[in-house]
Amino acid sequence: MNKTKYEAELLQLVNSINPKLIVSAAISEYGPLFVVRLSNGKRYNLTFEPS
Asked: CA–CA separation, 5 vs 41, rounded Å?
């Protein structure tokens, strides 16, 4: 997958996340990293890297 297509797909995915659920966002050596908290209080790490 070329970089432009990857970036477009990543942007679409990130835009689909409800911003009220995001606890933190950062860029790691592997790519974007988000921590989200669901309504039940559980937290999940979401990382995205090209395949």
From this structure: 34
Render the burial of 10-25: b for 16+ CB within 10 Å, e for the rest.
Answer: eeeeeeeeeeeeeeee
Q: Is 32 exposed, middle or buried (0-12, 13-18, 19+ CB in 10 A)?
A: middle
What's the pLDDT band for 16 if we cut at 50, 70, 90?
confident
Query: Is 44 in contact with 34 (CB distance < 8 Å)?
Result: no
Of residues 14 and 41, more confidence is placed in 41
d(CA 5, CA 42): 32
